[in-house]
UniProtKB/TrEMBL annotation:
<dbReference type="InterPro" id="IPR003439">
    <property type="entry name" value="ABC_transporter-like_ATP-bd"/>
</dbReference>
<dbReference type="InterPro" id="IPR056264">
    <property type="entry name" value="R2_ABCA1-4-like"/>
</dbReference>
<dbReference type="Pfam" id="PF23321">
    <property type="entry name" value="R1_ABCA1"/>
</dbReference>
<dbReference type="Pfam" id="PF00005">
    <property type="entry name" value="ABC_tran"/>
</dbReference>
<dbReference type="GO" id="GO:0005319">
    <property type="term" value="F:lipid transporter activity"/>
</dbReference>
<feature type="domain" description="ABC transporter">
    <location>
        <begin position="41"/>
        <end position="271"/>
    </location>
</feature>
<dbReference type="GO" id="GO:0016020">
    <property type="term" value="C:membrane"/>
</dbReference>
<dbReference type="GO" id="GO:0005524">
    <property type="term" value="F:ATP binding"/>
</dbReference>
<dbReference type="GO" id="GO:0140359">
    <property type="term" value="F:ABC-type transporter activity"/>
</dbReference>
<dbReference type="GO" id="GO:0016887">
    <property type="term" value="F:ATP hydrolysis activity"/>
</dbReference>
<dbReference type="InterPro" id="IPR026082">
    <property type="entry name" value="ABCA"/>
</dbReference>
<dbReference type="InterPro" id="IPR027417">
    <property type="entry name" value="P-loop_NTPase"/>
</dbReference>
<protein>
    <recommendedName>
        <fullName>ABC transporter domain-containing protein</fullName>
    </recommendedName>
</protein>
Length: 363
């Protein structure tokens, strides 16, 4: 069920990160001619309402060639809706977006010539072979008939499905269908490529093969925008990424920047003993350990308190591991209701989880 306090007005959104605000400021305050000179793709306050439900909220972004931009977010964050607006499949409610200076709102036919799109669900015809599929899309893209066959072979080689080129789509595995869909997005050499979860259903080795192929595409000068649920994928491919929550960018930057901004330091996760016959620890059980952490780790931040788990972020990297383990062992000895604990270096995955846990439940 939809939550009643979902922000209806783009201005209602709070807690935007400084990098997200800086990008907004830059897009809003730079002349269009300068933006189009610097960026292949520009989003300016891109917004989508489904009736009164705000699915995408005023996104501002500029993406250059040689850049792969990642949209990360859990289910329902607004990633596919963003793509659908960029491909002209959904009308834009407010704002606009441009590809090589062509407006999605007023020049969609021109924009469609400049983009390749791999949708989240393979839009393939079961009875055609992979070769026939590639040839059909090549013809639709205006490629001369005599070049279609060699192009199909080249794409199958680049994406490692040559062995399956003459199989019918219905005979292909899920991973090979994704490879076929991704290669379709590249037919006609479009300068901008949108990939909606390109590696869904792929085994780890195939995934890595596709990542390498996409790195080569990126390094040939194209602009790639992809959605993913995987931090690992974004680390492998993306020059920059944004974490999306409820239609908003929550943070934006290179994986390295996000790591140093949000994931430096340590994470302590403490499992608190639950009282008998209770599914969660209450304040009286968690209070002693909360006091202990506050007193002994002055820079600690309580990031999450969920049932019997407390997760702290320790930004002070100068404290040696031995000291931290020593303090946590002491807390265990003092019987502060600690059942168990773990101590580790913060990861990008934790940054992602920290941001996305604020996603409203809409289903
Ligand atoms: N046609 C529609 N009508 C009404 N609401 C929609 C429609 N399409 C999407 N939504 C809602 O908009 C929100 C964003 O959906 P969207 O598909 O863009 O999310 P997503 O980030 O791509 O999720 P996933 O990772 O599952 O693909 C969701 O709450 C979804 O239920």
């Amino acid at each position: 069920m939809q939550q009643s306090n979902f922000p209806k007005n783009p201005k209602d959104v709070i807690n935007e990160d400084s990098d997200v605000l800086a990008e907004k400021h830059q897009i809003r305050n730079t002349s269009q001619s300068e933006l189009f000179q610097n960026y292949t793709m520009v989003l300016s306050d891109l917004t989508k309402y489904y009736k009164d439900f705000l699915a995408v909220n005023g996104l501002c972004l500029g993406v250059k060639s040689y850049e792969c931009f990642g949209l990360l977010g859990i289910n329902g964050a607004g990633k596919t809706t963003t793509f659908k607006m960029l491909t002209g499949d959904e009308a834009i409610s407010h704002g606009d977006a441009w590809v090589q200076g062509n407006s999605i709102k007023t020049e969609i036919k021109q924009v469609q010539k400049l983009i390749g799109y791999c949708p989240q669900f393979d839009a393939l015809l079961d009875d055609l072979t992979a070769r026939e599929t590639l040839q059909m899309f090549s013809l639709l893209r205006g490629i001369p008939l005599q070049q279609c066959s060699s192009l199909a072979e080249k794409l199958a080689l680049d994406f490692n499905f040559s062995r399956h080129l003459d199989k019918q789509v219905k005979e292909l595995s899920g991973g090979n269908k994704r490879k076929l869909s991704t290669s379709i997005a590249l037919i006609g050499d479009p300068p901008v490529v949108y990939l909606d979860e390109p590696t869904t259903g792929m085994d780890p080795a195939t995934k890595r093969y596709l990542w390498n192929a996409l790195c080569r595409v990126r390094d040939s000068g194209k602009t790639i925008v992809l959605t993913s649920h995987s931090m690992e994928e974004c680390e492998a491919l993306c020059t920059r990424l944004a974490i999306m929550v409820n239609g908003n960018f929550k943070c934006l930057g290179s994986t390295q920047h996000l790591k140093s901004k949000f994931a430096e330091g340590y994470t302590i996760t403490i499992k608190v003993k639950k009282p008998e016959n209770s599914s969660a620890a209450h304040h009286s059980e968690t209070q002693p350990i909360e006091h202990f952490i506050r007193d002994n780790f002055p820079n600690s931040q309580l990031r999450e308190k969920h049932e019997e788990l407390l997760t702290y972020y320790i930004s002070d990297k100068s404290v040696p591991w031995s000291k931290m383990f020593g303090l946590l062992e002491e807390a265990k000895r003092r019987d502060l209701n600690i059942e168990d604990y773990s101590l580790g270096q913060s990861s990008l995955e934790q940054v992602f989880l920290t941001f996305t846990k604020h996603q409203f439940t809409t289903e």
